[in-house]
From TrEMBL:
Organism whose genome encodes this protein: Hansschlegelia zhihuaiae
Subunit record text: Monomer.
PANTHER family documented for this protein: DNA REPAIR POLYMERASE UMUC / TRANSFERASE FAMILY MEMBER (PTHR11076), PROTEIN UMUC (PTHR11076:SF34)
Keywords, comma-separated and alphabetical: DNA damage, DNA repair, SOS mutagenesis, SOS response
GO cellular component: cytosol
Name under which the protein is recorded: DNA-directed DNA polymerase
Entry EC no(s): 2.7.7.7
Function (record text): Poorly processive, error-prone DNA polymerase involved in untargeted mutagenesis. Copies undamaged DNA at stalled replication forks, which arise in vivo from mismatched or misaligned primer ends. These misaligned primers can be extended by PolIV. Exhibits no 3'-5' exonuclease (proofreading) activity. May be involved in translesional synthesis, in conjunction with the beta clamp from PolIII.
Domain UmuC: start-end pairs: 6-190
GO MF: damaged DNA binding; DNA-directed DNA polymerase activity
Length: 424
């Protein structure tokens, strides 16, 4: 049986790198990307880290530092980042038959079919091709297990002499590097577990490989045993080629400004329910229950308010109009005059495959007609951009929308946002 070999490739400071692809002027400047409502730093280049900007730093606290350090600051542009991720994974498909998309900027590849001596060169070729075709720099970690590939990827980022590729396939080299790798940085070891492991004398990944797997159960539960086996080179996790069925779907947003009227709340939750319906249909699912929640800002002195309401549906549905009706009922039930809301959202539970939804005995709807209408709406929005066709319930002005005051254009998905070239 051929030994397993996994590679983990991810984009370096992915959100920031995507911004640099379309603005060469910031190639050597520090760059940060902010969270929704331009709240805090969620992505930083190495230059920004060198200035002392930490992950999660509120923007209002680092604004002066950003000005002084000539930091390029961007609102998050998830449409752009998602499409760049899709393009990168299209490249990965040229190098490996089995690819698992782990997150927006990380993917696992199965390299078991390649000879061990060829894998490092292959990884360099992969990095070079991704950079040439998308402009995004990457690092690659290789190992006989997914956990070791993760460790190798982290080492490749830190040690510049590795030229972006680290291979932990060799047991001797692996043992040396694991003895220098902090245990808290191992995939699956959380911050709370680190102190418990330290009490057992475990401070590095190498220490963890020498720990009795049964002793790891207390600080790390049964997951700890799997981590130790994976660090020892025994693959316990295979690639997930079929995405597991989702157990729930949520669409939540912080408001661009406080919501103080029921009408504004109804517009917001209607927009979230419409979007949740799109997600359901994309995954071929339907929801039986919808929960609406809303709360005030807990940190600015506003009167505290937090409430949620769950609405059941006659039959599980992915029809955005049905979901909007349920979300509106929930919002009306939880609303309290005088509330000053900072965030709201909808959560869909009890998900089932759409084709397995039983028909309601009473009060059912014409599913085929609804499905045709939703399919037509999805097709128009896919061609002309999300929100081209939507429900009137979501409103027009949408003063409650999340702020993206420094968002770059969505270059790859919106023709109307492409730069215009003029002659003469």
């Amino acid at each position: 049986m051929t030994p397993k070999a996994f590679a983990l490739i991810d984009g370096n400071s992915f959100y920031c790198s995507c911004e640099r692809v379309f603005d060469p002027g910031i190639a050597h400047r520090p760059v940060i990307v902010l969270s929704n409502n331009d709240g805090c730093a969620v992505a930083r280049t190495s230059e920004a880290k060198a200035l002392g900007i930490k992950m999660g730093d509120p923007y209002f606290k680092i604004r002066d530092l950003c000005r002084a350090g000539r930091v390029a600051v961007y609102s998050s542009n998830y449409t752009l980042y998602g499409d760049m991720s899709r393009r990168m994974n299209a490249v990965y498909d040229q190098f490996a038959t089995d690819v698992e998309i782990y997150s927006i900027d990380e993917s696992f590849l199965d390299l078991s079919g390649y000879a061990p001596a060829d894998r490092r060169e292959l990884a360099q070729d992969l990095r070079s091709t991704v950079r040439k075709w998308t402009g995004v720099p990457t690092c690659v970690g290789i190992g006989p297990t997914k956990t070791l590939a993760k460790v190798a990827n982290a080492i490749a980022k830190k040690e510049l002499d590795l030229a972006g590729v680290c291979d932990l396939s060799d047991p001797v080299e692996r043992a040396i590097r694991l003895d220098r790798f902090p245990v808290e940085d191992v995939w699956g070891v959380g911050r709370a577990s680190t102190a418990k492991l330290a009490a057992l004398g475990v401070n590095t990944a190498g220490d963890l490989t020498r720990l009795d797997p049964k002793l790891a159960r207390k600080p790390l539960t049964v997951v700890g045993e799997r981590i130790i086996h994976e660090l020892r080179g025994m693959a316990c996790l295979d690639l997930e080629m079929v995405t597991p069925q989702r157990k729930g779907i949520a669409v939540t947003r912080s408001f661009g400004r406080p919501v103080t009227t029921l009408d504004a709340l109804l517009e917001a939750v209607s927009a979230y329910a419409f979007r949740a319906g799109e997600k359901l249909r994309r995954h071929g699912l339907a929801a039986s229950h919808l929960t609406v929640f809303a709360h005030s800002n807990l940190f600015n002195g506003d009167a505290p308010f937090s409430a949620s309401m769950t609405e059941g549906m006659i039959e599980a549905s992915s029809d955005s109009l049905v979901l909007i009706a349920a979300a509106s009922r929930g919002a009306q039930r939880l609303w309290r005059p005088g509330a000053k809301l900072a965030k709201a959202g909808v959560i869909l539970d009890d998900l089932v495959r759409a084709e397995n939804v039983p028909a309601a005995l009473i009060g059912g709807r014409d599913r085929e007609k609804a499905a045709r209408m939703m399919a037509a709406i999805d097709a128009v929005n896919a061609k002309h951009g999300r929100g081209s066709v939507t429900s009137a319930a979501v409103g027009i002005r949408k003063a409650w929308q999340t702020k993206f005051e420094m968002r770059s254009p969505r270059y790859t998905t919106r023709v109307d946002e492409l730069p215009a070239a003029r002659t003469g």
